[in-house]
Give the backbone structure.
Amino acid sequence: MSVYKVVELVGTSATSWEEAAKAAVSTASASLRHLRIAEVSELDMSLGEDGTVKEYRAKVRVSFKHEAGD
């Protein structure tokens, strides 16, 4: 029997939503062990005053195995 925790992160990228999602997972993997699933739950963009895309943002839910003491 296993128990998993879920955290929600927002990754950003100047180039794409895919890179934004990868940034979120990459950062999470630096401090969380036993990552299992990453689910993109929302995509959006921040825009400049002239209407151009400044940044792609991906909201990502990441699950990892809960261990005693976490």
User: Anything to note?
Assistant: The domain at 4-65 is CATH 3.30.1660.10 (Dodecin subunit-like). The chain has one domain: 4-65. The chain has a mean pLDDT of 93. The beta strands are 4-13, 35-47, 53-65.
